[in-house]
């Protein structure tokens, strides 16, 4: 904003911060004996280095750059050419994120030690997040060893390594992880994370932390710089207008820790009050991180490429930018976007005309877009792309854009099954208790056939006399001549009322499938290849259509398979004759039902074809036996099941069984030995586990585990655990749920069963 008052405030803060730096370069709060050795201390130094570098780049303040170098030099003295590794500092996803700051500093200074330190961190990643190798192999981000949100800043280190070395493995790994996160973990609000990490479930009601969304936006800015894909700008726009603005209270006083898709909003000072300190009761990680979402607009709203300018953001503003050769250009945007779709750009190159291209983004959600250059209509405008104007620009040339703001919907799945998210342009709409005459439990269903009958009744900028006034209000007709009043998500719940962005609806199309294998970015070889996708079969689904295309917009289709009844299909060599090596192919699945069709989650997965390689064998589909049987194993000295599939058996011993028979049981040491069997991706409402168990010792100061259906942290549909000498049946689903504990004897055989029936969990001993 170039605000003089803000500049003075930041300048004073920077000076005060640097004044605390120790003689050895340390910039943290811990005693000398603990410096950089744990406590998320490297994580803190990473953020300090990044902030001071931004200040240096903006102002040229050499004292800020020197402070960064002194801190980085201390990191290198502590961990480079020493027996101690950064891995030894613990909390690897946090502390190893300093690789990003070191990379930024290397590009400014060229100091070889910083690059050497980065390469050592990459080696340590192999024992922690393994971001490089999993990205190259195509492992979905939520399935990596460290899918917490802090790891996203580690991923930014991959971008720095690509910029420094040009080695494609770093770029490829980063691009894969970004595409994985947007397909599996980006919520309807544009936010990222469920319970502070990726879980592979964008419908999860677990907490959506503001810090996680900020990290997602930061890696998306890097992705946009790296690829120039307009889809990435769509994601940044969605997150800015919904997740970010929804996390800030309209008064500007506080930000949330959790901005749920459905629920209420609380100040982070309430939710994470443990971070409060004397004198700063409202400061915490989210309240200081949240405003970055708005500041990041300066990173991506208007950008420059090798040829000219790229306009990504159609919000009102006055933009002073430079061409690649340093020539200044001014762009002005007159609009009340995102409340309406009328946008007018004025180009001001100065007194002389300049020849250069400007590429304007056409959002993927704007199906019908009209563009006029100095009043003359242009052709060839396509949603989800850039249109280019290459000309001699003269003072006050104008480009007018009319964006399509008609309502659209996205069907939900899993926890949001039977519901939809409604959007007007990029704005997510939501029910708010204060705008309706009924509570959320009595909300009428949305009639998707009457979305065109929606009527906007309020569309205005914030009223300074009423900071809680919504941006947007519209009335939507419901069955029986009812009315549902919706507002913009950013305003929903601002007064403390309950709100919902997943709305019940009638006559829904099927939920969007998510493509699974071949993994995004995989290489498909000769032989049989299984194409598989995830979806929930229900009454709204009749069949699928699979399409393979050579273009990401599917303007042409090479292969179409229709009327598929199962979420998988096999391709042989005959079907692959149309594929050529060394190029990308894109595939998507369309789920169809009696009330319409829904394409698979974007971006569409892509693969390459290499006929010289053999296709990787796909595991046979998990079959369910009589009465829903998934696994049956006698464990009489052998872990091999009589029904089901054994995935892994670590070291084990045989033992006498419950009836005393030799080799009648399997013995595990209770520490690192386990038997792992295949379980279905989706658990039903009713599920049972039954087994015989004999404890040889009770675990001390930890929870012992007999059985677990664990998927990821806080996603465990069923557990049998030993805690302080008692047996428990438990479920982890955002929160923990448990039966009462039952004492269990040592050295005796017990027959144990846990039964989940709807909302009821029972333990039998």
Helix residue percentage: 10-25%
Beta-strand proportion = 25-35%
Name the structural class. Answer: alpha+beta
> What would you call the shape?
globular
Topology of helices and strands:
Elements: H1 4-19, H2 41-59, H3 62-79, H4 92-95, H5 98-109, H6 112-125, H7 131-137, H8 151-165, H9 168-184, H10 210-227, H11 230-247, E1 262-263, H12 268-271, H13 285-289, H14 292-295, H15 297-300, E2 302-304, E3 309-311, E4 317-322, E5 328-335, E6 342-348, E7 354-362, E8 370-373, E9 376-377, E10 385-393, E11 397-402, E12 407-411, E13 419-424, E14 427-432, E15 446-447, E16 455-459, E17 472-478, E18 482-488, E19 499-500, E20 503-506, E21 514-517, E22 522-526, E23 529-534, E24 543-549, E25 559-564, E26 568-571, E27 584-593, E28 596-599, E29 605-614, E30 646-649, E31 653-655, E32 665-667, E33 675-677, E34 686-694, E35 704-708, E36 715-723, E37 726-733, E38 735-738, E39 742-743, E40 749-757, E41 760-764
Parallel strand pairs: 3-7, 15-20, 22-29
Antiparallel strand pairs: 1-19, 2-3, 4-5, 5-6, 6-11, 7-10, 8-9, 8-11, 12-13, 13-14, 13-20, 14-18, 14-19, 16-17, 17-18, 21-23, 23-26, 24-25, 24-27, 27-28, 27-29, 30-33, 31-32, 34-40, 35-36, 36-37, 37-38, 37-39, 40-41
Helix pairs in contact: 2-3, 2-5, 5-6, 5-8, 7-9, 8-9, 8-10, 9-10, 10-11
């Amino acid at each position: 904003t170039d605000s003089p008052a803000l500049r003075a405030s930041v300048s004073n803060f920077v000076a005060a911060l640097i004044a605390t730096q120790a003689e050895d370069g340390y910039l943290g709060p811990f005693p000398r004996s603990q410096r950089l050795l744990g406590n998320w201390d490297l994580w803190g130094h990473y953020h300090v280095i990044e902030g001071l570098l931004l200040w240096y780049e903006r102002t040229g303040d050499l004292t800020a750059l020197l402070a960064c170098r002194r801190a980085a030099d201390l990191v290198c003295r502590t961990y480079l050419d020493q027996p101690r590794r950064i891995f030894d500092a613990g909390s690897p996803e946090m502390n190893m994120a300093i690789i990003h700051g070191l990379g930024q500093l290397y590009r400014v200074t060229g100091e070889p030690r910083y690059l050497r330190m980065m390469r050592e961190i990459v080696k340590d990643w192999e024992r922690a997040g393994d971001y490089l190798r999993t990205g190259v192999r195509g492992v979905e981000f939520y399935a990596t060893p460290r899918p917490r949100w802090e790891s996203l800043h580690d991923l930014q280190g991959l971008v720095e390594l690509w910029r420094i070395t040009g080695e494609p493995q770093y770029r490829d790994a980063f691009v894969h992880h970004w595409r994985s996160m947007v397909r599996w973990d980006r919520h309807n609000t544009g936010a990222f994370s469920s319970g502070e990490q990726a879980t592979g479930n964008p419908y999860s009601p677990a907490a959506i932390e503001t810090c996680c969304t900020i990290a997602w936006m930061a890696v998306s800015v890097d992705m946009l710089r790296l690829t120039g894909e307009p889809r990435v700008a769509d994601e940044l726009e969605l997150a800015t207008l919904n997740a970010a603005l929804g996390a800030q209270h309209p008064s500007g006083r506080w930000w949330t820790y959790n901005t749920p898709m459905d629920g209420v909003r609380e100040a982070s000072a309430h939710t994470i009050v443990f971070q409060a300190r004397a004198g700063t009761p409202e400061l915490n990680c989210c309240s200081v991180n949240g405003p970055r979402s708005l500041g990041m607009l300066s990173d991506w709203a208007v950008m420059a490429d090798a040829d000219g300018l790229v306009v990504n953001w159609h919000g009102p503003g006055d933009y002073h930018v430079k061409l690649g050769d340093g020539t200044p250009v001014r762009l002005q945007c007159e609009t009340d976007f995102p409340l309406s779709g009328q946008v007018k750009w004025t180009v001001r190159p100065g007194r002389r005309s300049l020849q250069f291209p400007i590429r304007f983004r056409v959002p993927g959600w704007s199906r019908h877009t009209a563009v006029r250059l100095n009043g003359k209509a242009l052709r060839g405008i396509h949603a989800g792309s850039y249109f280019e104007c290459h000309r001699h620009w003269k003072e006050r040339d104008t480009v007018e854009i009319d964006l399509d703001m008609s309502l659209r919907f996205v069907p939900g799945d899993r926890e949001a099954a039977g519901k939809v998210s409604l959007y007007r342009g990029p704005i997510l709409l939501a029910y708010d208790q204060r705008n309706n005459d009924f509570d959320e439990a009595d909300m009428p269903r949305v009639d998707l056939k009457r979305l065109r009958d929606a009527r906007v009744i309020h569309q205005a900028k914030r009223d300074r006399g009423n900071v809680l006034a919504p941006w947007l209000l519209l009335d939507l007709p419901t069955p029986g001549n009812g009315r549902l009043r919706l507002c913009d998500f950013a305003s929903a719940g601002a007064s403390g009322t309950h709100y919902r962005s997943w709305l019940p609806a009638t006559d829904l199309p099927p939920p969007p499938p998510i493509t699974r294998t071949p993994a995004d970015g995989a290489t498909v070889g000769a032989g049989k290849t299984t194409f598989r996708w995830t979806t929930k079969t229900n009454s709204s689904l009749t069949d699928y259509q699979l399409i393979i295309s050579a273009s990401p917009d599917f303007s042409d289709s090479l292969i179409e398979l229709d009327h598929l009844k199962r979420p998988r299909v096999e391709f042989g060599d005959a079907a692959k004759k149309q594929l050529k090596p060394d190029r990308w192919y894109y595939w998507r699945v369309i789920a169809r039902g009696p009330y319409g069709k829904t394409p698979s989650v974007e971006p569409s997965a892509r693969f390459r074809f290499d006929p010289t390689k053999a296709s990787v064998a796909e595991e046979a589909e998990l079959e369910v036996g009589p009465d829903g049987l998934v696994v049956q194993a006698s464990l009489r000295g052998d872990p091999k099941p009589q029904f089901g599939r054994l995935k892994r058996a670590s070291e084990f011993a045989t033992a006498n069984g419950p009836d005393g028979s030799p080799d009648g049981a399997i013995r595990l040491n209770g520490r690192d030995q386990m038997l792992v069997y295949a379980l279905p991706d989706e658990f039903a409402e009713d599920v049972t586990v039954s087994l015989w168990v004999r404890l040889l010792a009770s675990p001390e100061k930890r929870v012992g585990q007999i059985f677990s259906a664990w998927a990821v942290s806080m996603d465990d549909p069923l557990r049998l655990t030993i805690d302080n000498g008692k047996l428990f049946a438990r479920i982890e689903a955002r929160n923990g749920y448990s039966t009462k504990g039952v004492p269990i004897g040592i050295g005796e055989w017990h027959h144990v069963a846990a039964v989940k029936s709807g909302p009821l969990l029972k333990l039998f001993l």
